[in-house]
């Protein structure tokens, strides 16, 4: 990790590798004593509790790094099946113990931290990770909620894949994706897991099993699946889902396009998003971000535009996309087979582990906003960041982009969490004020709650609270998120 | 209408034009007396009440034809703005009077009929039909709920369109589309209005205004819009929405492809649906339906596959689609500019007005089901129909089709409503049993309620009821639908 830090500092000029701070050594004594005895189906082991205390926000990393495990769950349950989940929920409801469902623990918004009063159980779905059934005719698979991306795809028959690649792919789970409305790698069309879910099954404390019918489409009342998508563990414990899988793409092409001006790149993405071409990749990096992550020259914005298909060559699509980008002054590089993006893309987040030791604070946040408002939002965020931010357009909808910002600033040793909170507050205010959503795919969790409360319609909050009270009358499920 | 009936009878052999039964002449005395006096903002005019008694199901037509207006609303309100809606809701809540929101009145599932005990007001949104604002940069427009398809599109700037064409296009309204999750004409991708809505505004009895932020995409909790989509007037009165509009297509092509076997056509649609080509049209008619509606030869199934684009020629897409259809033995006809489908498509439903006089019962129903289950479902429906049904695949998803069935049988004069109820019950049972949804785009209303109740997850029903109780504690909004 120190070597990574040295490389990073040399590349960015941020942080001082010679002032490297090692992590606090782990000791069971760092954890508060459990506030209740463990039943047979839970463990109170300090290590098991410690590794499930946090998600993966910088705010989480720095606290773990310093040995702060004050919010560790009192107990950890690792159910093997739904019966064991029911047992945990009944036990917890009887005692008013909070239950925090956990998948891969990659939340960057405090979604899996027991940041509330009173005892809690971490309900880790990690052992429920099987592919239970495959329907190759429809292109669908029934998968348990605890399956990570690699485990899920390895469980499918040769040639089939769930084409969903969030940056947390290696660690995050199907249940987590659904609970947080996670975003994958694809820039258009099926951007969120929402679009790839055919049916969801969940266990609720008071309502029993919630299982929707497998359907390719429906108009029968409000979609039950859409009530669980984004429910962040507050309405029920998602146990399995039917997801839409596809044949692996046989044809892929991806072209880098350089723009002298960021704005010209944005205009090209705008055009592409409304073209009906639906590129699988359409990612615009500003000049600094391109230099930092993709070997850019530091002066040009870089657009990666790509297409893929299981059935047909994508040349016609690429050619049409490049006609559009050239209209905006884009200079296309050589088309690539682009086999390697996934590795680089999913390895990137591990870099964050070096930040605490190096004395660098990293905050990444994202939003989505309509095209008419994007220029002003972008300007406001960059002004607020005062040189510390880089930007990429990660998703492109016909009516607006989803920009992703990375902010890197020197840490004030010992005050990092407060520093981070202040960054989060300032940028969240800016995003809300300028018409964006508080999150496009990172979820609400506890960090975005105050801002989410201002964004959502009040009447909807009333309805959501009533639904929650009906399903979880004791309020044991992930208290503090959403409601 | 008698001439239409004669042509229809000659074409199908169904009905006896010589036994033509004229409609009962309208008289105000056909309507029951209003059970409460009209406040200043309502009318009790018999004609206004009569034309708002029913939707457009055959069951509705036959009753109106015979002069049965037993379920007429007691009063009709025609608000001009949200303040007037609030006034109606407050007045109704104080008195426990039911309020049935109404758009174009084209429900074919009893969604707008006061089929319950106690007095009711029909809240007709027809006067609130303006385009309030257009954002040409993002491609979005803010439109009042009462706008019909033609009025909405006429209100947009030249060159922009809401590409949403349900068969009821000329009469149905934006608010009705949202409340019922209506399906348009496009066979893939953006099939439902759900996909074209950017933000929704509604008035709720107890929760005040429900308005979501305009966003191209979001991951902030469960989507508020998805709670109103399909809410069928039971959670709030939808008053306006931002919808995604597009440039009118400059390039269109559509090709008829003939298949000697229905199954081969189905296999071609299956392949096309999973091809990633996303044709705008991909409609397969069985041989009898093709003969009835599209000049087919009565022996071949007919697939219409089409593409459209505002920006680029669609030749490459068409060519690839025809490679796929020919693999399944499809014989392609000549490509057409296909300017006329919309007229013929939206005129078709008017034919229904001739059925009551002619003594023909028509029931159209639709579903969606995964590909693995479709062959068995189709076989079961056709067996149940015993020669009286034709089928088209109206929508094609990667994981399954949405078939649409038309059943025509001779009426038993005087017992048509019961006959229709029995048809509805039998086919609904078959659809549910075989794994389909009770509706893909016709909504639940009152006719599908018993089947919907069996389809939806119980825990979801609990949550939906709680949400309804919170927003509408007096239960005045469209009683009997959904919950």
Write the SSE topology.
The structure is a homodimer of 483-residue chains.
Chain A (H helix, E strand, L loop, with lengths): L1 H11 L33 H5 L7 H8 L9 E3 L4 H14 L2 E5 L17 E5 L6 E5 L4 E5 L4 H6 L5 E2 L12 H7 L16 E8 L3 E4 L12 H5 L8 E8 L1 E2 L3 E9 L2 H12 L7 E5 L1 H8 L6 E9 L5 H13 L3 E2 L8 H7 L7 H4 L1 E7 L7 H12 L3 E9 L2 E11 L5 H18 L15 H7 L2 H14 L12
Parallel strand pairs in A: 1-3, 2-3
Antiparallel strand pairs in A: 4-5, 5-9, 6-10, 7-8, 7-9, 11-13, 11-14, 12-13, 12-16, 15-17, 16-17
- Indicate the multimeric state: homodimer
* Arithmetic mean of pLDDT of chain A: 96
Largest interface, per-chain counts? A-B, 99 and 98 residues
Strand order, largest beta sheet of chain A: 14-11-13-12-16-17-15
CATH class of the largest domain in chain A: Alpha Beta
Residue share in β-strands of chain A: 15-25%
Structural category of chain A: alpha+beta
* Helix content, binned percent of chain A: 25-40%
Low-confidence sequence ranges of chain A: none
Whole-number tally of structural domains of chain A: 3
H/I helix tally of chain A: 16
Q: How big is the Rg of chain A?
A: 22 Å
Determine the N-to-C terminus distance of chain A. Answer: 39 Å
Full CATH superfamily name of the largest domain in chain A: FAD-linked oxidase, cap domain/gating helix
CATH topology category name of the largest domain in chain A:
Vanillyl-alcohol Oxidase, Chain A, domain 3
| Biggest sheet character of chain A | 7 strands, antiparallel
Find the count of extended strands of chain A (DSSP E, 2+ residues): 17
């Amino acid at each position: 990790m120190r070597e990574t830090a040295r490389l990073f500092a040399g590349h960015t000029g941020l942080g001082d590798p010679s002032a490297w701070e090692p992590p606090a050594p782990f000791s069971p004594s760092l954890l508060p004593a459990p506030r209740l005895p463990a039943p047979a189906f839970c463990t109170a082991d300090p290590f098991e509790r410690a590794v499930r205390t946090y998600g993966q926000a910088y705010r989480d990393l720095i606290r773990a790094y310093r040995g702060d495990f004050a919010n560790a769950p009192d107990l950890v349950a690792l159910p093997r099946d739904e019966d064991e989940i029911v047992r945990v929920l009944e036990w917890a409801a009887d005692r008013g113990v909070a239950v925090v469902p956990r998948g891969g623990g990659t939340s960057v918004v405090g979604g899996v931290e027991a940041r509330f009063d009173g005892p809690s159980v971490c309900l880790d779905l990690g052992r429920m990770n099987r592919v239970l059934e495959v329907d190759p005719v429809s292109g669908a698979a029934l998968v348990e909620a605890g399956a990570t991306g690699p485990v899920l795809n390895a469980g499918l028959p040769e040639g089939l894949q769930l084409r969903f690649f969030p940056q947390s792919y290696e660690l995050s789970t199907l249940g987590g994706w659904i609970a947080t409305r996670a975003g994958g790698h694809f820039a258009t069309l099926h951007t969120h897991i929402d679009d790839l879910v055919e049916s969801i099954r969940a266990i609720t404390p008071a309502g029993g099993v919630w299982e929707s019918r497998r359907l390719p489409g429906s108009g029968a009342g409000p979609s039950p699946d859409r009530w669980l998508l984004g429910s962040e563990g507050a309405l029920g414990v998602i146990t399995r889902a039917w997801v839409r899988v596809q044949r692996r793409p046989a044809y892929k092409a991806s072209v880098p396009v350089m723009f002298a001006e960021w704005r010209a790149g944005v205009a090209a993405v705008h055009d592409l998003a409304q073209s009906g071409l639906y590129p699988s990749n359409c990612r615009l990096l500003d000049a600094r971000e391109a230099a930092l992550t993709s070997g850019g020259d530091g002066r040009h914005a870089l657009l990666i535009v790509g297409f893929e298909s299981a059935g047909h060559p994508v040349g016609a699509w690429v050619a049409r996309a490049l006609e559009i980008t050239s209209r905006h002054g884009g200079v296309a590089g050589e088309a690539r087979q682009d086999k390697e993006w996934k590795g680089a893309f999913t390895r990137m987040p591990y870099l964050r582990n070096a930040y605490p030791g190096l004395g660098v604070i990293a905050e990444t946040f994202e939003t989505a906003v309509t095209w008419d408002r994007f220029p002003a939002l972008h300007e406001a965020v960059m002004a607020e960041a005062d040189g510390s931010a880089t930007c990429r357009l990660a998703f492109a909808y016909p009516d607006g982009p989803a920009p992703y910002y990375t902010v890197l600033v020197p840490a004030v040793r010992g005050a990092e969490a407060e520093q981070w909170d202040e960054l989060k507050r300032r940028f969240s205010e800016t995003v809300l004020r300028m018409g964006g959503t508080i999150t496009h795919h990172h979820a609400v969790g506890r960090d975005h709650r105050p801002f989410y409360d201002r964004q959502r319609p009040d009447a909807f909050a009333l309805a959501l609270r009533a639904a929650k009270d009906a399903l979880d009358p004791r309020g044991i499920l992930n208290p503090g998120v959403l409601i």
